[in-house]
Amino acid sequence: MYDGTGPVSVSASSGLSFTPGDTLTVTWQSGSACMGYFIFEPIYCGTDALGDTQYIVNNNPGSSGTVEPSYYVDPATYPIYLGELVGVFADSSGDIVGTPFAIGDSLSFTIPSGATQLLLGVNDDIYSDNQGSYTMSINERAGSSVPEPATSCEMLAGILLIGVPLLRRRKTQE
């Protein structure tokens, strides 16, 4: 686990149809994580993908002085915690589609047009001292008005608390 390591990618190759307009639901199943160490003891530990609820990050810089992924998330969704599971959609080139968002323990959202993958990581600014993992389940439901059975993909790869360099990109001025 080193800074600059890419996020976990979920796409059609993960066993989902990954169709724009479909609804994805990401839900924490197990695992916990710590976002640092102090004198060989883990600190900033959460019990699930919501992260350390005692440490609100929002748009504040981290201890390294750089921003964390929550800096790019819509402030209307704050608070966002240290170590919380975050995501962003991207196209096949890895360019961001839409706005990054906090997922925490569970969130349902619609796959936007142009997206071919969902990138998942943790809200942190120093990844080299992280420890632990989250196991998440991801279910996809067709976006049509006719109910269809959900397609399920159990993400056993776990979110290994790796860097989220794509979430660090600054928003372009419109």
Describe it.
By secondary structure, the protein is mostly beta strands. Helices cover 0% and strands 43% of the residues. It contains no helices and 13 strands. The strands form four sheets. Strands 1-10-7-8 form a four-stranded antiparallel beta sheet, with no helix packed on it. Strands 9-2-12-13 form a four-stranded antiparallel beta sheet, with no helix packed on it. A three-stranded antiparallel beta sheet has the order 4-3-11, with no helix packed on it. Strand 7 (85-90) and strand 8 form a beta hairpin. The protein is globular and about 50 Å long.
Our Rg estimate from Cα atoms comes to 16 Å
Uncertain stretches: 145-174
The averaged pLDDT comes out at 80
Largest sheet: 4 strands, antiparallel
Annotation field: number of helices: 0
What are the SSEs and their pairings?
Elements: E1 8-11, E2 23-30, E3 33-38, E4 41-46, E5 52-56, E6 81-82, E7 85-90, E8 96-102, E9 106-110, E10 117-122, E11 131-132, E12 134-141, E13 151-159
Antiparallel strand pairs: 1-10, 2-9, 2-12, 3-4, 3-11, 5-6, 7-8, 7-10, 12-13
List the main descriptive attributes of the protein structure presented here.
174 residues, mainly beta, four-stranded antiparallel sheet, disordered C terminus
How would you concisely characterize the structure shown here?
The protein is mostly beta strands and 174 residues long. The chain has no helices and 13 strands. A hairpin with a 2-residue loop joins strand 3 and strand 4.
